[in-house]
Every structure is written in C-alpha cells, then in structure tokens.
Amino acid sequence: MPDRFIEHSLRAFSDDLSSDAPVPGGGSAAAYAGAMGAALAAMVGRISMKKDRSEALEAYIEETDNLASSRMTAPPTRASPRR
C-alpha cells in the first residue's frame, strides 16, 4: 500500500527527497515549501491581529490557512521505489 508523504516526518521526507528514488521530486518539495510559506504568512497575520484587528486581516489569515492546508495534501500517494 502506498505511503502518504503527509504522514512522514520532515526527516523521513528529506531522506526520501535525497535518495535516488524518482519520488518525491521537485513538485513535492515545492508543495511543502509553499505550505511552509503560507503557514509563516498566517503566523505574521496572527501576530498583527494582536495590534490591529480587522476584517481584511482575518480574511488574509483564513486564506493563508487554506493555502497551507491545501499544499500539504498535494502529493496524495507515494509510488514504490524501484529496486
């Protein structure tokens, strides 16, 4: 049964990424990097909310949370590496 990358630790994902297996590849790495960027943007929004609460900022945080979540589910399965 294929493994889901989302269920791997960051160390396991990094080890898989550096292996000679065809997956994960650049797309999976880009999806993870995008999710981390969106999560950091949400963090900044939440810190800003402590100073100035606004509907626009709440919408921004919601959007970045959704981006982070959707990026983390991008690679649905892991193909078995050929040996």
User: Tally of extended strands?
Assistant: 0
Give average pLDDT, whole number. Answer: 80
Structural class by sheet pairing and helices:
mainly alpha
**What percent of residues adopt helix (DSSP H or I)?**
55-70%
Which spans have pLDDT < 50 for at least 5 consecutive residues? Answer: none
What profile does the largest beta sheet have? none
Following the backbone from N to C, one meets helices and strands in this order, namely HHH
End-to-end separation: 16 Å
The total of helices stands at: 3
- The coarse overall form would be elongated
Radius of gyration: 16 Å
Strand content: under 5%
Descriptive notes:
With 83 residues, the chain is mostly helical. The chain has a domain at 35-72. It is 60% helix and 0% strand. It is built from 3 helices and no strands. The chain has helices at 10-17, 26-49, 55-72. The chain is elongated. The two termini are 16 Å apart. 7% of the residues are buried. The model has no long low-confidence stretch (mean pLDDT 80).
Key traits:
83 residues; mainly alpha
Q: What's the quick description here?
A:
By secondary structure, the protein is mainly α. The chain contains three helices and no strands. The longest helix has 24 residues, at 26-49.
Helix/strand layout:
Elements: H1 10-17, H2 26-49, H3 55-72
Helix pairs in contact: 2-3
